[in-house]
Specification:
By secondary structure, the chain is an alpha+beta fold. It has eleven helices and 18 strands. The protein has helices spanning 2-24, 36-41, 99-102, 168-179, 187-197, 259-265, 297-310, 338-347, 352-365, 371-374, 378-383; strands at 47-60, 63-65, 74-78, 89-93, 114-121, 129-138, 141-144, 199-200, 203-208, 215-217, 228-232, 254-258, 269-270, 275-276, 284-285, 289-291, 322-323, 334-335. The strands form five sheets. Strands 1-3-4-6-5 form a five-stranded mixed β-barrel. Helix 7 (297-310) crosses helix 8 (338-347). It is elongated and about 65 Å long.
C-alpha cells in the first residue's frame, strides 16, 4: 500500500509539473506575413503573404528596371527599398484585374513603397517569385480584393520559353508544339463559350458581332434572320474539317456573327475590295474574297496565323492548314491572301479585347493561346 501511495503521489506531482510547464511556455503565433528573404527560400508552391518594398519591374531572370516601365504586368519586391541585387528580390506577377492599381507603368510612384502580396510562392521569369496573386495592399490599406473571376489571371511568362530566339520554320514548329493538344470543345459547347469570350464589356447580356460590330443579346443565337451564329473565320471547307472537334470547334477562330452576314461571307478567302455589304457597313466582298471592317482586320489575320500554326497534320484526323497568296482555294487546306493578311496585321494592332479573349480561352476553355496576340512580331519572323 505504501508503494502504491508513493507511485500515485509521484504521478500526481509529474502531472502538476507538466501542466505548469505547458502553461508557462509561450505559444508561437504564425507570422502575419513572410519577409522577402523567407519567400526566396520557400519557393514551394504554397500560398503565402509576403511583405516588401517595390524596387522595380523584372524584365528577365536577372534584370530589373527602375524606370520607363514597359507595362503593368510585374514588379519586384525586396526587404530594403534601396536593394539593387536581384538575388535578394522576389518577382511578383500582377494579375490583370490589379494592373491598373499596382502596375508600375500606370503607377511609377509605387517604387520604394511597402506592399503586402498574397499569392503562390513559385518561380516567375525563372526567378523566385509570387504568382496566382489574390490580393495586393499598400502599407496604408488600399487593398484590392480577390480577383474578379470574369478577369482571368493567366501566367504566360513561361509559356513561350522554348520559342525564344527562334525564327522562320523553326519558330513555327516550336509554336505548334507549344499550342498543340488543346482541350477540345463540342460544337454545341461553342455557343456558351462565345457568350463569354465575345461578351460586350458595356453590357454583360450581349455579345459583339465580328463583322457588324453590333452589340446583340446573347439569347438571340440561332439560325433565324438577325440571329447570331458561329462563324468559322478559317472557312471550314478550306481543309474540309466541318464542325469536327478540333479545327471545327477551335475558339481561337470562331466568332459570333450575324446569320445573313455569315452566309454572304461563306467560304470566301480574304482580300481587299469589292462591294460594301448593306448590313455590315465597312465590309466588302466580291465573287472570291471578303474584306472585314478596319477595326477587326488584324483580328482576322491573327486568327488565320494561329490556325496555320496549330494545325500541321501531325495527328491523323487533323488537316495541315497553310496560308497562301491566292483566293478561290475551295476545299484545299489553304487560305489566302497572305500578303493582305500581313498588311492587316500591321494596320490593326492587337487591342485589349483581343488580349482578354485570348486569356479567357486559355484559362477557361482550351488551355492554349494564340501566339500572335501575345507576340504579333512573330508574324513577320515566320511569313516575311
Amino acid at each position: 500500500m505504501k508503494l502504491y501511495a508513493l507511485c500515485k503521489k509521484t504521478w500526481a506531482m509529474s502531472l502538476l509539473i507538466f501542466v505548469l510547464l505547458v502553461s508557462l511556455t509561450p505559444v508561437s503565433q504564425a507570422a502575419e506575413f513572410l519577409s522577402v528573404a523567407q519567400a526566396l527560400e520557400n519557393q514551394n508552391n504554397t500560398v503565402q503573404t509576403v511583405k516588401g518594398y517595390v524596387v522595380g519591374q523584372p524584365t528577365g531572370t536577372s534584370t530589373v528596371i527602375t524606370g520607363s516601365y514597359p507595362n503593368d504586368y510585374a514588379l519586384a519586391l525586396a526587404d530594403s527599398a534601396n536593394e539593387t541585387n536581384t538575388d535578394k528580390m522576389v518577382y511578383v506577377q500582377i494579375p490583370s484585374n490589379l494592373r491598373s492599381t499596382f502596375g508600375l507603368q500606370s503607377h511609377s510612384e509605387l517604387k520604394g513603397k511597402s506592399l503586402t502580396v498574397k499569392g503562390t510562392l513559385t518561380p516567375y521569369f525563372s526567378h523566385p517569385g509570387i504568382k496566382s496573386v489574390t490580393s495586393i495592399s499598400t502599407e496604408t490599406g488600399g487593398t484590392d480584393p480577390t480577383p474578379d473571376p470574369t478577369e482571368p489571371t493567366v501566367p504566360v511568362e513561361d509559356y513561350y520559353r522554348t520559342a525564344a530566339g527562334k525564327t522562320g520554320n523553326t519558330l513555327k514548329t516550336e509554336l505548334h508544339n507549344i499550342i498543340d493538344h488543346h482541350t477540345e470543345l463540342s460544337y454545341s459547347a461553342v455557343w456558351e463559350a462565345l457568350k463569354k469570350t465575345d461578351e460586350d464589356p458595356a453590357n454583360a447580356n450581349n455579345v459583339i458581332l465580328l463583322y457588324t460590330g453590333r452589340s446583340q443579346a446573347k439569347s438571340t443565337n440561332g439560325g433565324g434572320v438577325d440571329d447570331w451564329n458561329r462563324e468559322h473565320v478559317w472557312a471550314k471547307s478550306h481543309g474540309d474539317f466541318g464542325t469536327a472537334m478540333g479545327p471545327g470547334t477551335d475558339l481561337h477562330h470562331l466568332r459570333p456573327t450575324d446569320v445573313s452576314v455569315n452566309s454572304t461571307r461563306g467560304n470566301l478567302d480574304f482580300d481587299n475590295g469589292g462591294t460594301e455589304h448593306s448590313e455590315a457597313l465597312g465590309n466588302y466582298f466580291d465573287s472570291d474574297s471578303w474584306e472585314p471592317r478596319d477595326e477587326v482586320k488584324g483580328d482576322v489575320a491573327r486568327m488565320l496565323f494561329y490556325m496555320a500554326v496549330r494545325y500541321e497534320g501531325d495527328v491523323s484526323d487533323e488537316p495541315d492548314l497553310e496560308l497562301n497568296n491566292t483566293v478561290n482555294n475551295g476545299t484545299a487546306p489553304y487560305h489566302g491572301k497572305l500578303s493582305v493578311l500581313l498588311q492587316w496585321n500591321a494596320q490593326d494592332p492587337v487591342d485589349d479585347r483581343e488580349r482578354r479573349r485570348n486569356d479567357i480561352i486559355y484559362s477557361d476553355y482550351q488551355h492554349n493561346r494564340n501566339p500572335f496576340i501575345d507576340h504579333p512580331e512573330w508574324v513577320n519572323e515566320i511569313w516575311n
